[in-house]
Amino acid sequence: MRAADIPEDLTEILVTEEEIRSKLDELAARVAEDYAGKDLLLIGVLKGAVMVMADFARALPFSVPMDWMAVSSYGASTKSSGVVQIRKDLDTDLHGKHVLIVEDVIDSGLTLSWLLENFASRGAESIEVLALLRKPEAAKVEIDCKYVGFDIPPEFVVGYGLDYSERYRNLRDVAVLAPHVYA
Ligand code: 5GP
Ligand code: MG
Ligand code: MG
After folding, report:
1. Catalytic: 107?
2. Contact 99, 128 (CB under 8 A)
3. Which ligand number lies closest to the CA of residue 76?
4. What ranges do the domains of the chain cover?
5. Where in the cell is it found (predicted)?
């Protein structure tokens, strides 16, 4: 669905579908160059990163394996709990792999800092992060994110995979959710 389909649920469109597409093409070109000849593994963080992974992976000019990890840190609330729980683990042995974590958004950074430590302990050769969105003002821990799509203000956003209570993931753009929806 498009933002115009649900105007009363949104206050502002932050990133459009077109902007996302061209940014992911740009990031894919950089990643293709940086990982030429390397054993790259993409790891998507479910469920929010599904759309990013789908479009980013298809923008790469070579075949690449994908694995998925499901963790929870939010539940149905809009605030990070800081508690990370594995809901679905990886299927892949990380030894010798050049891992690129594909994320929807870096908010407090707590989830990623936990994931980075977890993946490092499994023997990955290298680990980098690609995040479509980042909220610099919300950072509680600094994450060294090599590939960032867009820096956005510290507001709760939905769309392009991002949900509120499992809704709005199929919105094509990234938009700020109107407070009355969760108030
Ligand atoms: P963290 O605070 O640990 O960096 O963010 C953890 C996860 O919370 C993100 O990967 C994302 O799934 C979710 N999250 C953070 N900010 C937002 C937001 O603005 N909207 C939505 N829908 N999810 C968010
Ligand atoms: Mg996420
Ligand atoms: Mg969520």
Report:
1. yes
2. yes
3. 3
4. 17-154
5. Cytoplasm
Distance in Å from the first CA to the final CA of the chain: 23
Q: What is the CATH architecture of 17-154?
A: 3-Layer(aba) Sandwich (3.40)
pLDDT in tens, the chain (183 residues): 999 999 999 999 999 999 999 999 999 999 999 999 999 999 999 999 999 999 999 999 999 999 999 998 755 555 566 678 899 999 999 999 999 999 999 999 999 999 999 999 999 999 999 999 999 999 999 999 999 999 999 999 999 999 999 999 999 999 999 999 988
The interface predicted TM-score (ipTM) is: 0.96
- pTM of this structure: 0.94
> Ligand 1 site: residues with CB under 6 angstroms?
48, 73-74, 80, 103-111, 156-158, 162-164
Secondary structure of residue 127 in the 3-state scheme: strand
* CA–CA separation, 13 and 75 (whole Å): 24
